Known about the structure:
- By secondary structure, this protein is mostly helical.
- Helix content is 36%, strand content 7%.
Amino acid sequence: MITAVPTLLLLVLILVVLTPRSDGGGQGNQWCIADEQTAADVLQVALDWACGAGGANCSMIQPNKPCYLPNTVKDHASYAFNSYWQKHKHQGGTCYFNAAAMVTDLNPSHDACQFESLP
């Protein structure tokens, strides 16, 4: 049993080193996304604010753009919330949106749709 401990520790170390990080390469990146438990009508209000007065760049969630699909309020809100937060987080902007959003370490980018992440 005692001789198995160093082997087990070595295997754990190998797994830790070789396991890919979910945060986009270990940079500590974070994204602001819509909370899946938030009702669609609440997300829509927050999405409208983010793309309007909030100043988020919502051009990529327009038809025929890389982040238009899936065409859901949740997915569009996630993109808009993240755009707003990345732009304003160093000036005090939050990822709150009346409790409709949350910060994640998991990169929400998919296919050609790339979510920005700034340090």
